[in-house]
Amino acid sequence: MRKSTVAIVGRPNVGKSTIFNRLVGERISIVEDVPGVTRDRIYSQAEWLTTSFNLIDTGGIELGDEPLLVQMREQADVAIREADVIIFIVNGREGITAADEEVAKILYKSNKPVVLAVNKVDNPEMRENVYEFYSLGFGEPYPISGTHGLGLGDMLDDVVGHFPTLESEEKDKDTIYFSLIGRPNVGKSSLVNAILNEERVIVSNIAGTTRDAIDTPFKRDDQDYIIIDTAGMRKRGKIYESTERYSILRALKAIERSDVVLTLIDAEEGIIEQDKKIAGYAHQAGKAIVIVVNKWDTVESDEKAMKEFEEKVRAHFPFLDYAPIVFLSALTKKRTHKLIPEVKRVSENHALRVETNVLNDVVMDAVAMNPTPTMNGKRLKILYTTQVAVKPPAFVVFVNDPELMHFSYERFLENRIRDAFGFEGTPIKIFARRRS
Ligand code: GDP
Ligand code: GDP
């Protein structure tokens, strides 16, 4: 997984260097009111939400005293060659110039996504200035102000949206993908660090990034894992206004890509409504789940306290009755070593496929033990059962009439299947179908 690269292009004095500085977050290059000013740096790292990327300011590419158009052509070529996405900057105070059109022509010919930004739109009244730039042919122009830091968020959403994602790369089926979810301050970042700092974990590289999260691959006991980290983000992103909306979106995206989701609860603060909502997402997505009770160091940690807390968890999360609970402390590292083996175990259950004949024996034994329900004098008949999917395991029960499959009987079958095959940590799905 490689980092994406963004290049800024545009004629001199439109504000490339100013915007480069903004995105990099430090004042590292010289900005003067002179076209073609020398820059300290033209290449740096920038971050947006959880995505870090490489940023190139092509305005800093020096070509001696070549004519303007030659310089610009060269800069655009560099951008096309190096970048995954190009930010094309124009000046909202000056309108379209011949040089803008020249750059546009070169960018058309590339297959790279181009995001058009109209700079120096320092106040809302000036927003009307952007309309003429539609004619450059790069879709909606983003009004921005480099000096005031306005409009950059919307522009960056678009830029990052064009990055190649992990989904478009191949997901390794032997690797276990997992994420940590939970409300702010529950200890997600601390736990990610604790996991990665553990002795027997070998972090292979931390280069991989996707648009919503930072992926860290590591190996433990010959098993490959990837932590999809949505945590640390919130602490950055100065220019970003509505972090809450995005933190939910990011969590959902991370859940989507995970095999296993660790749902964190704060032992010190107890369980609140928000915890249930967050855990509900993971359950609905059909992911394997481990409930992690973090900050256990803050609680009197005897067997009795654990038992009591477990009962509380079970009462608050009845829909997660299949999920194992791990009590630990990311701070003192107590019992954190138990977590990865648990992730592996539930992940295996999540991907488990059972043999059809054994499955049918289990279902028929269940029926013998607890006769099928009747409705209006008609009895449910189970003909046979088959597993149709994994991740999560799904079963189709072929019956005489699906209407007769009462919820409580379905639940009974689920429990019998769980008892027989040990699907701990994973939701399983059962569908009744009429035999055709
Ligand atoms: P570059 O040559 O494209 O890299 O442009 P610079 O970043 O060096 O900026 C050229 C001039 O435009 C400098 O005087 C900046 O202060 C000014 N400038 C940059 N962004 C803005 C902006 O958003 N609004 C205004 N009013 N001036 C800007
Ligand atoms: P996040 O917002 O979910 O990523 O939470 P952080 O990892 O940033 O942790 C929030 C706060 O809880 C920090 O002050 C941590 O030091 C603290 N913290 C995290 N884990 C533990 C723990 O196991 N025990 C205690 N006592 N504090 C913890």
UniProtKB/TrEMBL annotation:
Record flagged with keyword ATP-binding: no
GO molecular function: GTP binding; ribosome binding
PANTHER family cross-referenced by the UniProt entry: GTPASE DER (PTHR43834)
Role description: GTPase that plays an essential role in the late steps of ribosome biogenesis.
The protein, known as: GTPase Der
PROSITE patterns assigned: G_ENGA (PS51712)
Domain EngA-type G: 4-167, 176-351
Pfam family, one: KH_dom-like
UniProt organism field: Halolactibacillus alkaliphilus
Domain of life assignment: Bacteria
